[in-house]
Write a structure and sequence with these properties.
267 residues; alpha+beta; Alpha-Beta Plaits; globular; disordered C terminus
Length: 267
């Protein structure tokens, strides 16, 4: 995207042009974006793992396999090592891990690819290679109970339901809004849905029934098409390929409510 498109889009969200340029300079220095010879910006390879994790919301059902009761564990960081702990914690959170005991993060082993696939995903997202990732089986009854209660299942179900209805309400509003307001609303509301799905722990049905999550994925797919339509004229005016609308890498942040400051993007 050219700078002028990013600046114009920023204005819609109340951002000053100089603030957008400063943010771009910081992202460029952090190698999260790169600039071509024409001064256009795009995501850099260093951001590819996060972008792929966020964009994977479309394929959530395909990432699951039947759960046989096994768990995946990740051991804590070795004493004295401080190797990018922020990225490590973000990686674990993005793949749905929770702390079962000091130095032990766990999640159900119900993702396609099993331990090897989760290990590769964690490493690509920033987990240090020296952190052991392994299978856990036959927990004692007390540990098994604690492990299954690490996630707030009622809150997850309520969140799926509330987010789906927020999408449906916005879907009904968008045709009545001006182009600019529709762009902003589709980015914020659709982006919040994507962020929730990107952070979903993808728990197996014995812990959280899948129906509400699947309904949210379906609703987000419908809303995604509307969001693309809202942004397509603006992007076309700036000569930007718009098969993909804006992606917000801050989907790494924890999901929040639909506050005015919430950001997102149809990815």
């Amino acid at each position: 995207m050219p700078v002028r498109a990013l600046v114009e889009a920023g204005v819609l969200f109340g951002l000053e042009g100089n603030s957008v340029r400063v943010a771009l300079a910081r992202l460029l220095a952090a190698r999260r974006v790169e600039r071509d010879e024409r001064g256009r910006y795009r995501l850099a390879p260093a951001a590819a793992a996060v972008a792929a994790a966020v964009a994977g919301w479309r394929r959530l059902p395909e990432r699951l396999r039947p759960w046989d009761g096994a768990w995946i564990g990740v051991a804590g960081q070795a004493a004295g090592r401080r190797s990018r702990p922020d990225r490590a914690e973000q990686a674990l959170g993005l793949l749905g891990f929770r702390s079962l005991a000091p130095g032990l993060e766990v999640r159900p082993d119900n993702l396609v690819g099993g331990v090897a696939g989760v290990r590769a995903g964690l490493t690509s997202l920033g987990l240090p290679a020296e952190r052991p990732v392994f299978a856990l089986r036959e927990l004692d009854p007390a540990c098994e109970t604690r492990a299954r209660e690490l996630w707030d299942a009622p809150a997850l179900l309520a969140g799926y339901h509330a987010m789906r209805h927020a999408l449906e309400r916005s879907e009904a509003r968008l045709p009545r809004l001006s182009r600019e307001r529709a762009m902003v609303e589709s980015f914020r509301v659709g982006g919040e849905a994507i962020r929730r799905l990107a952070h979903d722990p993808l728990l197996p049905a014995p812990i959280v029934p899948a129906a509400e999550r699947e309904a949210l994925v379906a609703a987000t797919r419908r809303y995604d098409a509307l969001g693309r339509a809202c942004w397509a004229p603006f992007l076309a005016e700036h000569g930007v390929p718009h098969r993909h609308a804006p992606v917000d890498l801050r989907a790494f942040d924890a999901p929040t409510g639909l506050a005015p400051a919430a950001t997102g993007g149809i990815a």
